[in-house]
Amino acid sequence: MCSAALAPPPQLLRRWVGVGSRANCWSRRSPRSRVPVWRRSSTTKTQADTRTKGERVDATEDGLPDGVSPEDAAKFTSVLNKLIKDDPELKKSVEVKTLKAASKTRRTKEVVNWRGGGGFQVAHLSPACFDYTPELDRVMLTAAATGETLIESVAANLGFTLLHPDDDYVFDARHGNALLKVEGVATTEIVDWLASQVQPGETIVLAATTAMDGVRQHLRRAVKGSRVVALPDDVFRYSEGGDQ
Q1: What does the alpha-carbon distance between residue 193 and residue 64 come to, in Å, rounded to a whole number?
Q2: pLDDT (tens digit, 0 to 9) for every residue of the chain, 244 residues total?
Q3: 196-229 b/e with 16+ CB inside 10 Å = b?
């Protein structure tokens, strides 16, 4: 796409998206795109926006005790998770669940601090984790579907928001009261561990490339409303000539 096309007249009040697949897209087109954008800003120069991580806030039902900040509560939960990591029975105990509920916090949405002027952002796409294979007439996982790349792709395709890794969350992402965990193999042991980490009213979406026998039923019994998502079949049920 022509770089000039990415800078529409200011009176249109539009945001345009340009897509480039060549290696020189950033080195050649980005400098050219800056020219019309800077020209549009007559009173203030184009400046990049900055992003501030969301604030840690209280998420308990009755409020945190006096003198206990949301940051203190988050640190307590992080240390508690580490202390009980290797004790399955303690994870399920009423006392631990009560402590977690009394110290529950959440992080508000990321804040974008716009500093004036026109501008644009450059986004680099991650490697594709899913690809249609004509020989098999189905969608398959690619070689890139591992680690954080797979987690981010699954979260995006299922509509989940990634959780901050520095907050020591057991789960990978959240959508309302649903918590997402991406695993290679789903077992009953993993289900029991995850079930001990949720609060009342929360559900689990366990996405895995392989699910052992009985895991789906076990998860539904352990946490009502939860489900197992098989990768990639439960995400992309496309076949040539089909409706999906």
Answers
A1: 26
A2: 444 445 455 545 556 666 666 656 655 555 555 544 444 444 444 444 566 777 889 989 889 999 999 999 989 988 888 888 888 888 888 898 899 889 998 888 877 665 555 555 666 677 889 998 888 888 899 999 999 999 999 999 999 999 876 666 789 999 999 999 999 999 999 999 999 989 899 999 999 999 999 999 999 999 999 999 999 999 887 655 555 5
A3: bbbeeebbbbbbbbebbeebbebbeebbeebebb
Residue 212: name the closest of 235, 181, 190 by CA: 190
Contacts of 115 (CB under 8 A, 6+ apart): 47, 48, 49, 50
pTM exceeds cut of 0.70: no
- The answer to whether the CB of 191 falls within 8 A of the CB of 203 is no
Amino acid (one-letter) located at 125: L
Q: How far apart are CA 234 and CA 223, in angstroms?
A: 20
Looking at residue 241, its amino acid is G
What are the tokens at 46?
């184009």
For residue 58, give every residue at least 6 positions away whose Cβ sits within 8 Å of its Cβ, in sequence order, or none: 64, 70, 73, 104, 105
